[in-house]
TrEMBL record:
Species classification: Bacteria, Pseudomonadati, Spirochaetota, Spirochaetia, Spirochaetales
Top-rank taxon, per record: Bacteria
Domain HTH araC/xylS-type, first and last residues per copy: 276-374
Protein name: Transcriptional regulator, AraC family
InterPro entries assigned: Homeodomain-like_sf, HTH_AraC, HTH_AraC-typ_CS, LacI/GalR-like_sensor, Peripla_BP_I
Family annotation (SMART domains): HTH_ARAC
Record-annotated membrane-spanning stretches: none
MF terms (GO), sorted A to Z: DNA-binding transcription factor activity; transcription cis-regulatory region binding
UniProt keywords, alphabetically: DNA-binding, Transcription, Transcription regulation
Amino acid sequence: MPRIQLLLGLDDAFGRAIARGVIRYAKAKPDWKVYGYGRLFTGELAQPDGLIVRAETPEESERFSAMNIPVVDVACAYPGTGLMEAYNDDEETGRRGAAYLRSLGFQSFAFGGIEGTLWSRRRFQGYFEFLHRDFSLITQFERPLHWWRDPALDRTDLKQWLQSLSRPTALFAANDIVGLRIIESCKEVGLSVPSDISVLGVDDEDLLCELADPSLSSIRLNCEGIGMVAAELLDKALNQQSDSIRVLNIEKGLHPMHIVERESTQTVIHSDPLVVQTVTWLRANARKHIDVRDLVINLPASRRTVEKRIRKALGCSPRQLIEQYRLEYAKYLLATTNMPLDSVAQSSGFTVIQRFYSVFKKSEGCTPAIWRRNNRKNP
């Protein structure tokens, strides 16, 4: 009977959701015995046959790597650990954050990151790569994870940096803790969120995001899916010959799920009033059965003018913008409800089911049914 130890840190939504994914996988493995004692190495460790860990320091990574058993890391904070890895696709997370913030009409962008961690660097890389063709300068502020976590530390340098940003600015935070500290610091120096600084986090820590003032918009990750993938990788490793365990270097990344919009990004910023009117109208109406003609009827400009100015400002056509809003809502429904696929399409604004499938597969690389199976939040 394989003994599987979880060292994840169950004090936040990320660790708990990954644990749920492992448990889902383990239910199909009646011979598995799963233990969970938190993140750190303790005397309670029960001579496991395999580990699923969240290694957040180089020392933890080295210690796990030196063990003569299969180990899967879900933090993936440092390169070259030699551990198997199941992780969120952080570059794609950065790209989606950039696409969303740009769709609000911003022309100035910033990033708040976790110093020295691979996943934060990758999120910035995706964010930067999406934006850099049109915006050459993206300012960033980084500090170690413990600096962001400790509520008692002096953050004068963060406040000074925030005050130095042009206004309005869209700020992508590497995770929700960073987003929370930024919102707190903005308030302390008299910066308005979202009108001066709009803030988007990552992880969608429900309580943390809702209790922030204003509430924090965030990218929800497929943490349960990561847990299932971690368990699957560990299962494969356990079935290998013992002398091949050390040469295993398997990794698998999963796309983030969708953006949960809250007060910290509920604004439309652009010097072109036509762009502001377009985005405002589409955010209110995209899920209705409308098309570009309906949009133009409600705007003081011709279709050609609308097409030209939206493409120049946002890097996409009005039709693509409509479908972007619909797709985000469709993913929300797929992840949180049992609604049939045709009902998901209709509720999201897609009147033709084939178009829904086409747009979805082009964006996500899989069908809605497969995406739902891999991303269900509470199945």
